[in-house]
Amino acid sequence: MSLLIKNGLVVTSTGSYQADVYVEDGKIKTMGNDLDIAAQTIIDAKGKYILPGAIDPHTHLAMPFMGTFAQDDYETGTIAAACGGVTSVVDFDLQQKGESIFQAVERKKSWAKDKVAVDYSLHPAIMDPRPEVIDEIKKAIQEYGTPSFKIFMVYDFRVDDATMIKLLKETKKYGGLVQVHAENVHIIDYLNEEFEKAGTLTPYYHAKSRPNIAEEEAISRAAKMVELTDSRIYIVHLSSKEGLARVKEARDKGVNVFAETCPQYLLLDEERYKESGFNGAKYVMSPPLRTKESNEALWDGIKKGDIQVVATDHCPFDINGKKDMNGTDDYRKIPNGAPGIETLLMLMHSEGVVKGRISLEKMVDVLSTSTAKMFGLADKGEIQVGKDADIVIFDPKQKFTITQEKLHMNVDYTPYEGMEVTGMPVEVYVRGKKVSEWKNDHVEFVGEKGYGRFVKRVPLMME
Protein backbone atom coordinates (compact mmCIF):
# COMPACT_ATOMS: atom_id res chain seq x y z
CA MET A 1 0.00 0.00 0.00
CA SER A 2 1.54 3.30 -1.09
CA LEU A 3 0.52 6.87 -0.40
CA LEU A 4 1.82 10.23 -1.62
CA ILE A 5 0.84 13.37 0.28
CA LYS A 6 1.67 16.47 -1.73
CA ASN A 7 1.99 20.20 -1.04
CA GLY A 8 1.36 20.13 2.72
CA LEU A 9 3.21 21.95 5.50
CA VAL A 10 5.24 19.36 7.40
CA VAL A 11 5.38 20.38 11.06
CA THR A 12 8.17 19.17 13.34
CA SER A 13 9.08 20.07 16.92
CA THR A 14 11.80 22.39 15.63
CA GLY A 15 10.34 23.95 12.48
CA SER A 16 7.91 23.69 9.57
CA TYR A 17 8.46 23.40 5.82
CA GLN A 18 6.61 22.58 2.59
CA ALA A 19 7.24 19.02 1.41
CA ASP A 20 5.72 15.93 -0.16
CA VAL A 21 5.67 12.74 1.90
CA TYR A 22 5.78 9.29 0.31
CA VAL A 23 4.61 6.29 2.33
CA GLU A 24 5.06 2.62 1.51
CA ASP A 25 4.40 -0.50 3.60
CA GLY A 26 3.41 1.56 6.62
CA LYS A 27 6.63 3.59 6.76
CA ILE A 28 7.66 7.07 5.61
CA LYS A 29 10.00 6.23 2.72
CA THR A 30 10.85 9.56 1.07
CA MET A 31 10.30 13.26 1.62
CA GLY A 32 11.05 16.14 -0.72
CA ASN A 33 9.67 18.78 -3.05
CA ASP A 34 7.68 17.88 -6.18
CA LEU A 35 8.11 14.13 -5.71
CA ASP A 36 7.24 12.29 -8.91
CA ILE A 37 6.45 8.83 -7.58
CA ALA A 38 3.64 6.54 -8.65
CA ALA A 39 1.47 5.81 -5.61
CA GLN A 40 -1.81 3.98 -5.15
CA THR A 41 -3.25 7.01 -3.37
CA ILE A 42 -2.26 10.64 -3.99
CA ILE A 43 -3.55 13.41 -1.73
CA ASP A 44 -3.22 17.13 -2.30
CA ALA A 45 -2.69 18.64 1.17
CA LYS A 46 -2.30 22.23 -0.03
CA GLY A 47 -3.22 24.63 2.77
CA LYS A 48 -3.08 21.86 5.34
CA TYR A 49 -0.58 20.67 7.94
CA ILE A 50 1.09 17.27 7.85
CA LEU A 51 1.43 16.39 11.53
CA PRO A 52 2.78 13.31 13.27
CA GLY A 53 -0.10 11.48 14.92
CA ALA A 54 -0.70 12.54 18.50
CA ILE A 55 0.33 10.06 21.20
CA ASP A 56 -1.79 9.83 24.35
CA PRO A 57 0.41 8.28 27.05
CA HIS A 58 -2.20 8.52 29.81
CA THR A 59 -5.39 6.53 29.28
CA HIS A 60 -7.47 4.20 31.43
CA LEU A 61 -9.33 1.92 29.03
CA ALA A 62 -11.65 -0.68 30.64
CA MET A 63 -10.15 0.25 34.02
CA PRO A 64 -11.82 -1.28 37.10
CA PHE A 65 -12.60 1.47 39.62
CA MET A 66 -14.97 2.00 42.56
CA GLY A 67 -17.13 -1.01 41.73
CA THR A 68 -17.44 -0.32 38.01
CA PHE A 69 -15.30 0.02 34.87
CA ALA A 70 -14.23 2.99 32.78
CA GLN A 71 -16.70 2.89 29.93
CA ASP A 72 -14.39 3.02 26.95
CA ASP A 73 -12.83 -0.35 26.21
CA TYR A 74 -10.05 -0.92 23.71
CA GLU A 75 -12.48 -0.81 20.80
CA THR A 76 -14.51 2.33 21.57
CA GLY A 77 -11.56 4.15 23.15
CA THR A 78 -9.20 3.64 20.24
CA ILE A 79 -11.88 4.43 17.65
CA ALA A 80 -12.39 7.74 19.48
CA ALA A 81 -8.62 8.24 19.52
CA ALA A 82 -8.40 7.66 15.75
CA CYS A 83 -11.15 10.22 15.13
CA GLY A 84 -9.26 12.80 17.17
CA GLY A 85 -5.91 12.32 15.45
CA VAL A 86 -4.41 10.19 18.24
CA THR A 87 -2.58 7.35 16.50
CA SER A 88 -0.98 5.67 19.55
CA VAL A 89 -2.00 5.30 23.18
CA VAL A 90 -0.05 4.06 26.17
CA ASP A 91 -2.64 2.68 28.55
CA PHE A 92 -2.29 2.10 32.28
CA ASP A 93 -2.24 -1.53 33.36
CA LEU A 94 -3.12 -1.85 37.06
CA GLN A 95 -1.33 -4.85 38.56
CA GLN A 96 -3.73 -6.86 40.71
CA LYS A 97 -2.88 -8.44 44.07
CA GLY A 98 -0.65 -11.48 43.55
CA GLU A 99 0.00 -10.80 39.85
CA SER A 100 3.45 -10.57 38.33
CA ILE A 101 4.14 -7.68 35.93
CA PHE A 102 4.14 -10.21 33.08
CA GLN A 103 0.70 -11.53 34.07
CA ALA A 104 -0.66 -7.97 34.32
CA VAL A 105 0.67 -7.09 30.85
CA GLU A 106 -0.65 -10.27 29.26
CA ARG A 107 -4.06 -9.82 30.88
CA LYS A 108 -4.48 -6.34 29.46
CA LYS A 109 -3.12 -7.40 26.05
CA SER A 110 -5.79 -10.11 25.97
CA TRP A 111 -8.46 -7.43 26.56
CA ALA A 112 -7.07 -5.41 23.65
CA LYS A 113 -6.67 -8.31 21.21
CA ASP A 114 -8.73 -7.91 18.03
CA LYS A 115 -10.21 -4.64 19.33
CA VAL A 116 -7.65 -1.84 19.02
CA ALA A 117 -7.98 0.55 16.08
CA VAL A 118 -4.66 2.36 16.69
CA ASP A 119 -1.30 1.19 18.02
CA TYR A 120 -0.89 0.85 21.76
CA SER A 121 1.47 0.02 24.58
CA LEU A 122 1.11 -0.40 28.34
CA HIS A 123 2.51 1.14 31.51
CA PRO A 124 2.38 -1.42 34.35
CA ALA A 125 1.14 0.23 37.55
CA ILE A 126 2.95 -1.33 40.50
CA MET A 127 0.23 -1.90 43.10
CA ASP A 128 1.57 -5.04 44.81
CA PRO A 129 5.32 -4.32 45.10
CA ARG A 130 6.49 -7.70 46.42
CA PRO A 131 10.29 -8.27 46.23
CA GLU A 132 9.87 -10.55 43.20
CA VAL A 133 7.90 -7.80 41.43
CA ILE A 134 10.71 -5.29 42.00
CA ASP A 135 13.10 -7.95 40.64
CA GLU A 136 10.93 -8.25 37.51
CA ILE A 137 11.49 -4.58 36.55
CA LYS A 138 14.55 -5.51 34.46
CA LYS A 139 12.58 -8.03 32.37
CA ALA A 140 9.68 -5.61 31.94
CA ILE A 141 12.10 -3.03 30.50
CA GLN A 142 14.26 -5.34 28.40
CA GLU A 143 11.84 -8.10 27.34
CA TYR A 144 8.20 -7.06 27.74
CA GLY A 145 8.68 -3.67 26.05
CA THR A 146 7.15 -1.76 28.98
CA PRO A 147 9.90 0.51 30.39
CA SER A 148 7.62 2.90 32.34
CA PHE A 149 5.93 2.13 35.65
CA LYS A 150 3.15 3.97 37.50
CA ILE A 151 3.00 4.41 41.25
CA PHE A 152 0.51 6.25 43.43
CA MET A 153 1.16 8.35 46.51
CA VAL A 154 -2.60 8.26 47.26
CA TYR A 155 -5.38 5.65 47.58
CA ASP A 156 -5.25 2.34 49.46
CA PHE A 157 -2.80 0.91 46.93
CA ARG A 158 -0.24 3.71 47.32
CA VAL A 159 3.44 2.89 47.73
CA ASP A 160 5.55 4.11 50.62
CA ASP A 161 8.73 6.16 50.18
CA ALA A 162 10.98 3.13 50.64
CA THR A 163 9.28 1.34 47.74
CA MET A 164 9.56 4.47 45.62
CA ILE A 165 13.30 4.56 46.29
CA LYS A 166 13.68 0.88 45.31
CA LEU A 167 11.79 1.46 42.05
CA LEU A 168 13.80 4.57 41.23
CA LYS A 169 17.06 2.69 41.74
CA GLU A 170 15.93 -0.32 39.72
CA THR A 171 14.56 1.68 36.78
CA LYS A 172 17.73 3.79 36.67
CA LYS A 173 19.87 0.65 36.18
CA TYR A 174 18.01 -0.58 33.10
CA GLY A 175 16.58 2.49 31.36
CA GLY A 176 13.12 2.70 32.91
CA LEU A 177 10.95 5.55 34.12
CA VAL A 178 8.81 5.84 37.25
CA GLN A 179 5.58 7.82 36.81
CA VAL A 180 3.89 9.12 39.92
CA HIS A 181 0.42 10.32 40.87
CA ALA A 182 1.60 12.93 43.37
CA GLU A 183 -0.86 13.98 46.07
CA ASN A 184 -0.43 13.90 49.86
CA VAL A 185 -2.88 11.28 51.14
CA HIS A 186 -2.84 12.52 54.75
CA ILE A 187 -3.91 16.05 53.80
CA ILE A 188 -6.76 14.59 51.71
CA ASP A 189 -7.89 12.17 54.46
CA TYR A 190 -7.89 14.97 57.02
CA LEU A 191 -9.96 17.29 54.83
CA ASN A 192 -12.39 14.51 53.88
CA GLU A 193 -13.11 14.02 57.58
CA GLU A 194 -13.52 17.75 58.16
CA PHE A 195 -16.00 18.11 55.28
CA GLU A 196 -17.94 15.06 56.44
CA LYS A 197 -18.31 16.59 59.92
CA ALA A 198 -19.45 19.87 58.38
CA GLY A 199 -21.85 18.12 56.01
CA THR A 200 -20.25 19.80 52.99
CA LEU A 201 -20.05 16.93 50.53
CA THR A 202 -21.22 18.44 47.21
CA PRO A 203 -18.91 18.02 44.16
CA TYR A 204 -17.33 21.44 44.82
CA TYR A 205 -15.78 20.04 47.99
CA HIS A 206 -14.04 17.34 45.98
CA ALA A 207 -11.77 20.14 44.75
CA LYS A 208 -11.44 21.63 48.23
CA SER A 209 -10.47 18.23 49.71
CA ARG A 210 -7.48 17.94 47.38
CA PRO A 211 -5.88 21.41 47.60
CA ASN A 212 -2.89 22.59 45.60
CA ILE A 213 -0.64 22.09 48.63
CA ALA A 214 -1.39 18.34 48.59
CA GLU A 215 0.08 18.12 45.08
CA GLU A 216 2.90 20.53 45.86
CA GLU A 217 4.10 18.58 48.92
CA ALA A 218 3.97 15.20 47.15
CA ILE A 219 5.94 16.49 44.14
CA SER A 220 8.51 18.00 46.47
CA ARG A 221 8.90 14.68 48.33
CA ALA A 222 9.10 12.64 45.11
CA ALA A 223 11.77 15.03 43.78
CA LYS A 224 13.82 14.43 46.93
CA MET A 225 13.73 10.67 46.29
CA VAL A 226 14.97 11.31 42.75
CA GLU A 227 17.75 13.52 44.09
CA LEU A 228 18.72 10.78 46.55
CA THR A 229 18.88 8.06 43.88
CA ASP A 230 20.08 10.22 40.95
CA SER A 231 17.27 8.63 38.95
CA ARG A 232 14.32 10.32 37.26
CA ILE A 233 10.58 10.61 37.68
CA TYR A 234 7.61 11.76 35.62
CA ILE A 235 4.74 13.59 37.30
CA VAL A 236 1.42 12.59 35.72
CA HIS A 237 -1.46 15.06 35.30
CA LEU A 238 0.26 18.09 36.87
CA SER A 239 -2.57 20.44 37.79
CA SER A 240 -1.40 23.35 39.94
CA LYS A 241 0.77 26.44 39.80
CA GLU A 242 2.40 25.38 43.08
CA GLY A 243 3.13 21.87 41.80
CA LEU A 244 4.74 23.34 38.69
CA ALA A 245 6.94 25.56 40.89
CA ARG A 246 8.30 22.46 42.64
CA VAL A 247 8.98 20.77 39.29
CA LYS A 248 10.89 23.84 38.10
CA GLU A 249 12.79 24.08 41.37
CA ALA A 250 13.97 20.47 41.05
CA ARG A 251 14.88 20.85 37.38
CA ASP A 252 16.84 24.03 38.12
CA LYS A 253 18.93 21.96 40.56
CA GLY A 254 19.63 19.40 37.83
CA VAL A 255 17.20 16.80 39.23
CA ASN A 256 15.45 14.75 36.52
CA VAL A 257 11.81 15.57 37.19
CA PHE A 258 9.59 15.54 34.10
CA ALA A 259 5.92 16.45 33.91
CA GLU A 260 2.75 16.12 31.87
CA THR A 261 -0.44 18.11 32.11
CA CYS A 262 -3.85 17.64 30.49
CA PRO A 263 -6.29 19.89 28.60
CA GLN A 264 -8.70 19.98 31.56
CA TYR A 265 -6.04 21.62 33.75
CA LEU A 266 -5.30 24.14 31.01
CA LEU A 267 -8.87 25.07 30.08
CA LEU A 268 -11.29 24.35 32.93
CA ASP A 269 -11.38 25.64 36.49
CA GLU A 270 -13.00 24.78 39.82
CA GLU A 271 -16.05 26.99 39.13
CA ARG A 272 -17.30 24.03 37.04
CA TYR A 273 -18.03 22.12 40.26
CA LYS A 274 -20.74 24.68 41.05
CA GLU A 275 -22.89 23.70 38.03
CA SER A 276 -26.51 23.06 38.99
CA GLY A 277 -27.72 19.85 40.55
CA PHE A 278 -25.32 16.95 40.18
CA ASN A 279 -23.67 18.37 37.03
CA GLY A 280 -20.52 19.31 38.94
CA ALA A 281 -19.82 15.56 39.19
CA LYS A 282 -18.79 15.60 35.51
CA TYR A 283 -15.53 17.19 36.64
CA VAL A 284 -14.81 14.94 39.63
CA MET A 285 -11.33 13.72 38.75
CA SER A 286 -8.11 13.51 40.72
CA PRO A 287 -6.33 15.82 40.92
CA PRO A 288 -9.30 18.20 40.65
CA LEU A 289 -9.70 21.28 38.49
CA ARG A 290 -7.87 24.32 39.90
CA THR A 291 -8.09 28.09 39.35
CA LYS A 292 -7.58 30.21 36.25
CA GLU A 293 -4.24 31.23 37.79
CA SER A 294 -3.05 27.62 37.61
CA ASN A 295 -4.44 27.31 34.04
CA GLU A 296 -2.22 30.17 32.89
CA ALA A 297 0.83 28.96 34.84
CA LEU A 298 0.61 25.55 33.14
CA TRP A 299 0.36 27.08 29.65
CA ASP A 300 3.48 29.05 30.53
CA GLY A 301 5.14 25.83 31.75
CA ILE A 302 4.52 24.20 28.36
CA LYS A 303 5.80 27.23 26.48
CA LYS A 304 9.01 27.38 28.54
CA GLY A 305 9.70 23.63 28.42
CA ASP A 306 9.06 22.88 32.09
CA ILE A 307 6.20 20.56 31.05
CA GLN A 308 7.25 18.05 28.40
CA VAL A 309 4.03 16.20 27.56
CA VAL A 310 0.30 16.86 27.24
CA ALA A 311 -1.91 13.78 27.74
CA THR A 312 -5.58 13.26 28.67
CA ASP A 313 -6.03 10.93 31.68
CA HIS A 314 -9.01 9.63 29.69
CA CYS A 315 -11.21 7.73 32.15
CA PRO A 316 -14.91 8.13 31.30
CA PHE A 317 -17.97 7.42 33.44
CA ASP A 318 -21.53 8.35 32.42
CA ILE A 319 -23.02 11.13 34.52
CA ASN A 320 -26.28 9.12 34.47
CA GLY A 321 -25.77 5.59 35.75
CA LYS A 322 -22.09 5.63 36.71
CA LYS A 323 -21.15 8.92 38.39
CA ASP A 324 -24.37 8.68 40.42
CA MET A 325 -24.31 4.93 41.05
CA ASN A 326 -23.39 5.37 44.72
CA GLY A 327 -25.75 8.27 45.31
CA THR A 328 -25.51 12.01 44.71
CA ASP A 329 -24.91 13.35 48.18
CA ASP A 330 -21.23 12.55 48.78
CA TYR A 331 -18.36 13.55 46.45
CA ARG A 332 -16.22 10.73 47.90
CA LYS A 333 -18.50 8.14 46.28
CA ILE A 334 -18.35 9.57 42.75
CA PRO A 335 -16.18 7.54 40.33
CA ASN A 336 -13.22 9.79 39.44
CA GLY A 337 -12.44 10.53 35.82
CA ALA A 338 -13.48 12.33 32.66
CA PRO A 339 -13.35 11.71 28.88
CA GLY A 340 -10.77 13.43 26.68
CA ILE A 341 -8.93 11.10 24.28
CA GLU A 342 -10.78 12.41 21.19
CA THR A 343 -10.56 16.14 21.92
CA LEU A 344 -6.83 16.35 22.76
CA LEU A 345 -5.44 17.57 19.41
CA MET A 346 -8.32 19.88 18.47
CA LEU A 347 -8.19 21.63 21.87
CA MET A 348 -4.42 22.06 21.91
CA HIS A 349 -4.50 23.57 18.44
CA SER A 350 -7.50 25.84 18.94
CA GLU A 351 -6.83 26.97 22.51
CA GLY A 352 -3.04 26.79 22.34
CA VAL A 353 -1.80 27.59 18.83
CA VAL A 354 -4.68 29.70 17.47
CA LYS A 355 -4.81 31.78 20.66
CA GLY A 356 -1.05 32.34 20.62
CA ARG A 357 -0.30 30.54 23.89
CA ILE A 358 2.11 28.09 22.24
CA SER A 359 3.66 27.65 18.80
CA LEU A 360 2.58 25.02 16.30
CA GLU A 361 5.98 23.36 16.74
CA LYS A 362 5.56 23.26 20.54
CA MET A 363 2.18 21.58 20.07
CA VAL A 364 3.80 18.86 17.95
CA ASP A 365 6.52 18.46 20.55
CA VAL A 366 4.24 17.98 23.57
CA LEU A 367 1.68 15.81 21.71
CA SER A 368 4.04 13.66 19.66
CA THR A 369 7.82 14.08 19.51
CA SER A 370 8.68 14.59 23.16
CA THR A 371 6.13 11.95 24.17
CA ALA A 372 7.69 9.35 21.86
CA LYS A 373 11.15 10.07 23.25
CA MET A 374 9.95 10.09 26.86
CA PHE A 375 8.39 6.65 26.58
CA GLY A 376 10.64 4.81 24.13
CA LEU A 377 8.32 4.78 21.11
CA ALA A 378 11.26 4.64 18.73
CA ASP A 379 9.23 4.53 15.48
CA LYS A 380 6.65 7.16 16.42
CA GLY A 381 6.32 10.88 17.01
CA GLU A 382 7.87 12.52 13.93
CA ILE A 383 7.32 13.01 10.22
CA GLN A 384 10.69 11.60 9.27
CA VAL A 385 12.02 9.00 6.83
CA GLY A 386 12.10 5.57 8.48
CA LYS A 387 9.39 6.32 11.05
CA ASP A 388 5.94 4.75 11.08
CA ALA A 389 3.52 6.58 8.80
CA ASP A 390 1.32 7.77 11.67
CA ILE A 391 0.14 10.95 9.97
CA VAL A 392 -2.59 13.52 10.53
CA ILE A 393 -3.60 15.76 7.65
CA PHE A 394 -4.90 18.73 9.58
CA ASP A 395 -6.98 21.62 8.29
CA PRO A 396 -6.07 24.62 10.49
CA LYS A 397 -9.16 26.55 9.38
CA GLN A 398 -11.84 23.88 9.77
CA LYS A 399 -14.34 24.89 12.47
CA PHE A 400 -16.06 22.37 14.71
CA THR A 401 -18.38 22.77 17.68
CA ILE A 402 -17.59 20.08 20.23
CA THR A 403 -20.73 18.20 21.16
CA GLN A 404 -21.02 14.70 22.54
CA GLU A 405 -23.34 13.50 19.77
CA LYS A 406 -20.61 14.09 17.16
CA LEU A 407 -17.85 12.41 19.17
CA HIS A 408 -17.13 8.70 19.50
CA MET A 409 -16.23 8.27 23.16
CA ASN A 410 -18.55 5.83 24.93
CA VAL A 411 -19.87 8.28 27.50
CA ASP A 412 -22.88 10.58 27.84
CA TYR A 413 -21.06 13.92 28.10
CA THR A 414 -17.96 15.88 27.17
CA PRO A 415 -16.49 18.51 29.53
CA TYR A 416 -16.14 20.78 26.48
CA GLU A 417 -19.78 20.70 25.28
CA GLY A 418 -20.55 23.66 23.01
CA MET A 419 -16.95 24.85 22.66
CA GLU A 420 -16.09 25.94 19.13
CA VAL A 421 -12.63 24.95 17.96
CA THR A 422 -10.62 26.04 14.93
CA GLY A 423 -8.59 23.33 13.23
CA MET A 424 -9.50 19.66 12.79
CA PRO A 425 -7.95 16.42 11.54
CA VAL A 426 -9.35 15.73 8.09
CA GLU A 427 -7.51 12.47 7.40
CA VAL A 428 -5.72 10.26 9.93
CA TYR A 429 -3.35 7.40 9.10
CA VAL A 430 -1.86 4.69 11.31
CA ARG A 431 1.11 2.99 9.65
CA GLY A 432 -0.11 4.25 6.27
CA LYS A 433 -3.69 3.01 6.65
CA LYS A 434 -6.49 5.56 6.83
CA VAL A 435 -8.42 5.24 10.09
CA SER A 436 -10.61 8.37 10.07
CA GLU A 437 -11.65 11.29 7.88
CA TRP A 438 -13.72 14.47 7.98
CA LYS A 439 -17.21 14.00 6.51
CA ASN A 440 -19.77 16.81 6.32
CA ASP A 441 -19.61 18.22 9.86
CA HIS A 442 -17.58 15.73 11.93
CA VAL A 443 -14.85 13.10 11.78
CA GLU A 444 -15.87 9.53 10.98
CA PHE A 445 -14.02 6.30 11.71
CA VAL A 446 -13.06 4.46 8.51
CA GLY A 447 -10.48 2.05 9.90
CA GLU A 448 -10.93 -1.42 11.30
CA LYS A 449 -10.89 -2.71 14.83
CA GLY A 450 -7.99 -5.10 15.42
CA TYR A 451 -5.65 -3.19 13.08
CA GLY A 452 -3.75 -1.65 15.99
CA ARG A 453 -0.66 -3.43 17.28
CA PHE A 454 1.01 -3.75 20.66
CA VAL A 455 4.23 -1.74 20.44
CA LYS A 456 7.25 -2.92 22.37
CA ARG A 457 8.94 0.22 23.62
CA VAL A 458 12.70 0.55 23.90
CA PRO A 459 14.66 1.19 27.14
CA LEU A 460 14.99 4.87 27.84
CA MET A 461 18.23 6.79 27.94
CA MET A 462 18.87 9.09 30.88
CA GLU A 463 19.14 12.74 29.81
Describe, in plain words, how this protein is organized in 3D.
31% of the residues lie in helices and 25% in strands. With 463 residues, it is α/β, with parallel strands linked by helices. Strands 1, 2, 3, 4, 5, 16, 17, 18 and 19 form a nine-stranded mixed sheet that branches. Strand 7 and strand 8 form a beta hairpin. The radius of gyration is 21 Å and the shape is globular. The two termini are 38 Å apart.
Q: What is the terminal-to-terminal distance? A: 38 Å
Helix-strand makeup class: alpha/beta
Strand proportion, as a percent range, falls in 15-25%
DSSP helix fraction: 25-40%
Shape: globular
Uncertain runs are none
Question: How does the SSE layout of this entry go?
Answer:
Elements: E1 2-11, E2 16-24, E3 27-32, E4 41-44, E5 49-52, E6 54-59, E7 64-65, E8 68-69, H1 74-84, E9 86-94, H2 101-112, E10 119-125, H3 131-135, H4 137-144, E11 148-152, H5 161-174, E12 177-181, H6 185-198, H7 204-209, H8 212-229, E13 232-235, H9 241-252, E14 256-261, H10 263-267, H11 292-303, E15 309-310, H12 344-353, H13 360-375, E16 391-401, E17 420-430, E18 433-439, E19 442-445
Parallel strand pairs: 1-4, 1-5, 6-9, 9-10, 11-12, 12-13, 13-14, 14-15
Antiparallel strand pairs: 1-2, 2-3, 5-16, 7-8, 16-17, 17-18, 18-19
Helix pairs in contact: 4-5, 5-8, 8-9
Could you name the key traits of this structure?
463 residues; 9-stranded mixed sheet; alpha/beta; 5-stranded parallel sheet
Brief overview, please?
Helix content is 31%, strand content 25%. With 463 residues, the protein is an alpha/beta fold.
